[in-house]
Protein 1
Amino acid sequence: MGRDRQEHQGIFTAPMDHSYRANLGGDNGNSNRGPRRPGFSASYPVVDPEPLPAPREDAASRVFAFVEDLFFLSKIQATGQKMNVKVEFVKNEKELTERMKSNGEEKPSLIIFDLNNANAKPLTLIPKLKSKLKKGTSIIGFLSHVQGDLKQKAHEVGCDMVLPRSAFSQNLPQLLRRHGAIEADSGAAD
């Protein structure tokens, strides 16, 4: 019976011993000890820059955003609060013009466009803003990474920087800090 059982049992598999991973240095991120596998670098968390000093209550907004997507609206709002940068959300050119007039002589440092926001008409509004605001204001647009044609058109009409949504999200704290600072006037849009 012993031999009969051995012939009809099939392939015997033992529980896998994963100690070979430790010997190779590839521990699937379970430990920070020992050498790592070649080609797999350690990932470091992205550190947000230091927030700016808290602005005065009556401080003029330096950053405006044409964003209706609730996810990005709340992300920009939360990041702005964290970085002590006042961001105003506008829906159209008329609203932007009114808010800029309330700022007095100070022009915005940054205008953010969700290039998929059809209500803002970014491809017609960006050239108007570029001619009116000149070099003192940077215009940044974001879109889906697969929208190559829209990216090209946005650059052609005067958008200073066009980023995929993921890169925009990742760089948002640095962008707001750079453009929200009062001393950002010189050389903001080179």
Protein 2
Amino acid sequence: MKRAVVICWGVLLLCLGVAVGAEEAPAHPAATAAEGAGAVSAIQIRNLGAGKIDEGFVRTRIASKQGAPLDRQAVSKDVKTLLETGRFSSVDASVDVSNGAIVLVFSVRGKLRLQDPVAMEGVTHFRESKIRDMLDLLVGDLVDDQVMGVRVQKVLEEYRADYYLDAQASWQIEQKDAATGLAAVTLKIDEGTRAVVKGVRFVGNEHFSDSTLRRVVKQPSHWNPMWLLRKKRYPADDLETARLDILDLYANDGYLDAVVEIPVLEKIGAKGLRIVVSIQEGKPYKIGTIALSGVTLFKEENLRKEIKIEAGDVASAKVIDATAQAVRDYYGGRGYVNTTVRPVKETVAATGIANLTFSVTEGALAHIRNVVIQGNTRTRDKVIRRELLVYPGDIYNEVKIRRSERIVYNLGFFDSVRSAPVDTSVADERDLVFQVEEKPTGNIMMGAGFSSVDNLMVFLDLMQANFDIAAWPPTGGGQKLRLHTQVSSKRKDYELSFTEPWFLDRKLSLGFDVYRRESSYSDYDVTRTGGSVGLGKSLPGANRLDFRYRLERSELGDISDSNEYFYVDSPHDPYYFNNEPRKLTESSLTVSLTHDDRDNPFIPSRGNRTSAFATLTGGPLGFDTDMYDLGLTAIQYVPLWFHHVFSVRTRWEVVDGYGSTDELPIDDRLFIGGGRTIRGYHYRDVGPKVERTVSDATGTTTYHKPVGGQTLGMASAEYLVPVVSKIRLAGFYDIGNVWRDPYQVDLGSLASSAGVGVRFDIPMFPIRIDYAWPIQKDNELTREDEWVFWIGYDF
């Protein structure tokens, strides 16, 4: 034991002696210099790669200098700086010490340059040119593994966004010329199999059914035939939109605490995906107390009149926000700018009560100093200013200003219209700035189409919605010019029309049109050539009053039948087609009153359009025909759930002669059937008819032809269901008739039909296809025609 202790002490003393000796030994001069005690004698640049290195480029970008003390922190920064230039794949720095001289060496490896466009292997889904656009690498660009890694990741993101979830990529960089540093790059892509969304699964929903939630995310059920047109791809933005839409659905039904997780995609088999949406519904709330805070400028009871919700109502987020806006508008409509109203909800989960406090931060009263228009390069200032509802000197009425924005936007000249107050040197004055962004207003449309009335047709439309007849180039005056040509086997239309919406700088619209219309029917042709001039005035309440004078020459030709016919409902009354007047000149004046508060003139979802008119032809206006025409048309659109729309259309019209006109010409009578009237029947075939019977050796044959009437009545109901963007399904019911005499109505002889259809809402070229089943004919001679094809909007 004693011997072992002695040995341990001996080893310990030996170690201490080595340590002390090392501590006391003098440092080597070279090592001292390397630690920064000396100055840098030289800086060398070494090229470890292919191609040439521009030493001047390197030296101008490093902070280390010859003759300066060696600073290892500065050297590290130099390495980082050189890498950030993007020219080098690697940069290293080292210090050589020899005979007291310090040499700083930067060893760099330059990136290769692309010799040819990137070669592709395995690319089938995208075009190779599109992949190259994603890579954004041109011949001569620098390339290495890091560059390719970043660029290829963008390509893979595009594949995965298009539901190639298993797409993989690799690349090979092959040096071609060491002297020049050129390389060839080959990109290999394994695309994998494209996945599709085969369904949506909701987790945690009890209040709303799966089918209701599917409609929100635009995924029909499997039993729905439109499942074949379901959305098969969901980019990340669409998934987030679906999540927010579901959240709104719950919040608007009183579920203020509802949580909707970010939808995730789960794989189903090799090619399928399913969207999984997890929902925590929470409890529904009803409104408890309603309070206002921060109100000092007005009596609280006046503001409470703007609050239309009551205790016990469903605490709908949409209704609450609308109420806050109504309170804000009370201030804004009285000139108090920058007023904010914040609805504060105090929910009590145990009772399901949400107490509301509308916290008001009152703004300052302001007047409008100047109205400034910005952004209009073509449209003249006055075209915009004349539509505004506010003027310099008025209070800053935010409600009227918002309405002015909508009015200017609805002109159709601008992509966007925004307004904002700008402070001035006077505390209670603001400049009102309208910022507009113009869009093209001219349009040339040409093409071909088909309808069940005109068959094959070609058309050409030249339109300028922002025309200026007094300027060159002729744009910016807010006038409308249209040249329309349509030619088919049964009709030729040529029309030129012009409208000045502010005649004499007043809210009066002056318009004129000239036209020629040639229509070919089975028994005769009608050619109408004429023109008209009209004056219109907007009235309060979305109403409008119009006057239009028309002078027209009509010619009846190519009468193919000179036989004697008899009216079906009056067999003793004869009728001859060749007795119709061949040429007539008609002079008429029409007065119409129209109410139109639809939310969209082309594809409306709510609102009403009603028009009543009276036309006087001849008499004090002269020429060949004395007649009058009275009519009323109305259509009501009712929005339903999930953007479904129900509409009801009615039409009533009567024409009659007076003075020297005992019987109306056939081309002035009323016709109905087919087209946009009563579907399921031949065009113009419903209503009064004449017939003749021919007997010969083979038997008896009866021929009949429609001749129109003087009283028309019809109604139509339609239910529209959106399927996907710009495609809607329709179900409809039509009923009506035309009667021979004026003011004659026989409800026992109505024709009716029902059917289904599809609407393709293509901008400027809408298509409607309907299939109708006749239910009840006005008489047995009326011919059926189940299919209706039509191009155009309902106005």
Protein 3
Amino acid sequence: MTNSQNDLIEKLKEKLREIFQFENEDLDFGIYRIINYKRKEIENFINKEIINEVKTQLSVLKEEEQQEIEEKIKEITSKTTIKKYLEALEKGDEERIKLYREDFAEDISEYENLKRKLKQAKVSENIEREIYNHLINFFSRYYDKGDFISKRRYGKKEKYIVPYNGEEILFYWVNKDQYYIKTTEYFRKYSFQIPDGNITVNFKVVKAEEEKGNVKSVEKKFFILSPEVFSLNGKELNIYFEYRTLSEKEKEKYKQGNTISQEKINKETVKILQEKIPENSLARIIFRKDPSSQTGKSYIEKHLYNYTKRNLTDYFIHKDLKTFLERELDFYIKNELLQLENLEILEQKEYFDKLKLYLSEVKVFKNIASKIIEFLAQIENFQKKLWEKKKFIIDTHYVITLDKIKEYAGEEFLNDILSEILNNEKQLKEWQELFGINIKEKKDLIDNNTLQGIEWKKLPIDTKHFNENFKWKLLTALSKKNNLHKILDGVLIKSENWQALNLLLNTHYEKVKTIYIDPPFNKEQEADYLYKVGYKDATWITMLENRIRLAKDLLNEKGSIFVRCDYNGNAYVRLLLNEIFGKENFRNEISVRRFKKNVMEREIKKLPEGLDTIYVYAKNSEHFSYVNPFRMKDEKREGFWRHMGDSSGQGNPKIFFGRELSPPPGKHWKYSQEKIDQMIKEGKLILQCKHCGYIHNRSNGLWKGCPVCGKDDPQPKYWVEEKDTEVLDSNWSDIYGYSTKWKFQTENSETLLKRVIESTSNEGDTILDFFLGSGTTTAVAHKLKRKWIGIEMGDHFWNIILPRMKKVLFYDPSGISKEKDVKEKYNKKTAGGFFKYHTLEQYEDTLENIEFEDPQPTLYEFPDYFARYMFEWETKKSKAFLNISELKDPFNYKLKVIENYHLKTFSVDMVETFNYLMGLTAKAYKAVEDNGRKYIFVFGEKEGRKIAIVWRSMKNLNLEKDRKLIEENIKRYGPDEIYINGDALVKNFKAIEPIFKTLMFEGAE
């Protein structure tokens, strides 16, 4: 073997190691942990199997060539002329040999040439070199830092082309056939613990680079240690980073070869930390060697490598990598390997000889490339399986106000659980923090005693503060006389939104009336949204497409979706929605104001953005129509009723509804007393309580203080009677689209969501927001008596959304609560409610719960086991895929879950997970104790059939007693179908386990 061949072999090995990400051997998260588990087998595949396969394929070519020559020799030896010549040779008859050579010269020459070729037959070394070259070139062009990108090039011109099927206009982007899997949680923070020092280390991004002017930076960004460096609080060490492009000086400093290396930056980071952290500090433990590191790195080196790699890799999963690469392989062969244009000038014989050589090369190249593709596809399909798998619900909790417990379960039950409530310190503390109410005894929970009975305060109980028995006791009581599905106001889901939408498909298919989303805008500077370098727009579009396409299935035929965006992505969003919903279902392009803009610079090079765009699409335009397409002529009644142009002194007071009011300092009232009296008489002026929003108009007579909160602090406002309305158009610049009430960066205003929800839904309809943000959509939906679903994954789920919804249940006087039409349906007396919230297993959790079985050595002897079936076969009993044997104790099925960046073990909510998988409308629950064994009965409906589901532990179970207990508890419901976990003697029951496992992967592409 020549040196050039050896070099090409090593280059091919290097490329395959890059594709299989061998450089990440120290990474212990995600798909890397799985690949590292099989690193020896993959190394063997690269070093031996692929190279040996090339040799084998070339050997096969040699045999085929020999066989072809032998066939030709056999054919020519059948000729009489050659037969006579061979006989003369055998007898050594020199005279005849000489005579035949003269008479049969052409045939004998061909025969001897064939014999000579047979002796010398071998495949050219050039073919072997070409094959290695083509393998390297082919896989290099589609692979980009952890992902296979769908980009195609024409020959040496290297221009991308797009698959085209005759469309008039084609909307295409480079990641169209992939899933976007990155989550903002990965970027925000990274934490790890050092066991022997009992110290927690947090990596935090404190600054992400902003765009300069209107210029989009395409330069690569890096994680650089912030000037703040670190802080140590007790046993918690925070290390601070910036994520930005480098200065010219930094580029030179961190250059490694021709590229800038994050690894080199990491080494500098460690060096700075060693200099900055004092010698006697507890924090210096981070420089000790991590015993789990395969390469002998210190704790800080290993985790810094993990952190930067984790944020710069693993973005996409291809939906069908095998088909994509096989299609591209055929394209590559036709356009680059079969150089047919080079054959046109050759003579006929040369043409066929050259073509034969090309075809030989193609055959070997395709066979080898296909083997590599098979293995790559196995890994990619395994990741896709993990992504598409319906995720387990980790836990479920319920929030319900005291008045609703009384209404649905009865006052006797509420009194029975009062002692548990009053003795629950966590619940009492939450009420104190949220509402400033100090609860010590029963009377503190009561608003009033009336003839109709006790009026309980609308304080929300959260079952997370109580044990499981309390939750099941509550649900049993609530659903004893009520359909639980009907009395439930909404659902919150703590999850990455694709996974939550995927789980909702069976229970909420075509049941949502209105979707509103305000996704992260397509900005490069967002600190919580990391783009793959060079694919910023494609990444963003892919993220949206994956989720909106899934959400479309949740909309009913009369439903609609509102997607808010700004100038960074509105052109893409319009095209994307056209593709998903169809141009014919476009309804409106709405403009809405952002915030008030105060620009003080004298030289303005770019006008500040004043408007956002909201695109409205119907699920089916033939069935869709706006429900309430009206608005009041003047909705600008929030501003003070005063003249704003006078800045000296203070005007005289005026009388409003018998109350004397002075204008603010530096202002004076705009109208005379006579005009004020006339406006009050005409219903064009009201007083509004500054504290609770109560509206006092002409029908209320003189102002005598606020009848709602008792305060005497009104302000005058313009007012337009409700009958004075006009049809909405697409210009919504009369209202602001953002608010600052909850101190959330992109907090949508309640006024905007009120208009969205009221214009497209009725009371009782379901509203969905899967980029929930601060929770405005669910808050407004509740105030307007709609059902609601909210999905969010950030920490603000716990510290903003959940507290906000609890305040809405208690009574939130802010936002639209001040408006007259809202106060009629949502006020202190009519507030209250009942919702549940879930925490879902995430893709990263699924990866953490993958376990490999050691296979029988004989399995590797089966053809294609390694390349096609290894991952699927060896992980089939992992808990992530439902280990059926573990369901013998369904209340103790445990998964490892990443919480606050630490790995913890949680018991899965099997009951609720199966309800979603089944698509069950759960109407009632019943919890039964039998000699220490817990039974959970779920009663519901699916497609018009009554369903009963039974859960219990199988440990030491007497099946005959079990049968009697089950039949006794379900007979009143009269189910059409019965599902039970484990074994049972109940007639015609269906086992949960195989159905559960099948449904977890239902709908996967």
